[in-house]
Design brief:
This protein is α+β, with helices and mostly antiparallel strands and about 170 residues long. It has four helices and eight strands. It has an eight-stranded mixed sheet, sandwiched between helices. Strand 7 and strand 8 form a beta hairpin. Helix 1 runs antiparallel to helix 2. The longest helix has 15 residues. The two termini are about 25 Å apart.
């Protein structure tokens, strides 16, 4: 994403190093991520904005005052042809239901269309805390593709969703 876009009381913009503390506070505010997961979110953030950035792209949803309401992190999946992963999409509980998650996901999909992506993969938890998240993905055209029992922990399966993007094209 190269430009800021205004969407219904908030705007989408690339995140910078100055957003790190707000991102940590946002991830913590959800109440669903363990400490090790929060550490990974920060590690990915640092990697995306480091001196030698990885293939991660970050986009934030900010209110008029510049407060971080949500963010998404995505990148190409290694060893695939035009497949991408949505690594993180997080919306502050107080901002949920306002279209923040939809705007972030739409922006990711729009950028991936420009990048000629063919498939977006999203992984999430099977825990009850993630029921609304799974419904969010399904309502936006993501199909369940796989389930790995007890992946994150006993009784916490990895649920994988996929969505085909763009018109079918020849592989490179």
């Amino acid at each position: 994403m190269t430009a800021t876009r205004v969407v219904s009381g908030f705007h989408l913009a690339p995140l910078g190093k100055g957003h790190r503390a707000a991102l940590e506070a946002l991830v913590r505010a959800t109440g669903v991520f363990r400490e090790d997961e929060i550490a990974v979110a920060l590690e990915v953030f640092d990697s995306a904005l480091g001196d030698e950035p990885d293939d991660y792209t970050l986009v934030g949803a900010l209110d008029e005052a510049g407060a971080l309401l949500g963010y998404a992190c995505y990148g190409p999946t290694p060893c695939t042809v035009r497949t991408w992963d949505l690594y993180w999409i997080v919306v502050h509980p107080a901002a949920q239901g306002r279209g923040v998650g939809t705007a972030l996901l739409n922006d990711v999909e729009r950028q991936l269309e420009i990048a000629n992506a063919r498939l977006l993969v999203i992984e999430t938890s099977s825990k009850n805390d993630y029921a609304a998240t799974r419904g969010f993905y399904r309502s936006r055209g993501y199909e369940p593709a796989a389930r790995v029992p007890d992946f994150y922990d006993i009784g916490d399966d990895r649920v994988i969703y996929v969505k085909r993007l763009g018109a079918p094209k020849e592989s490179a």
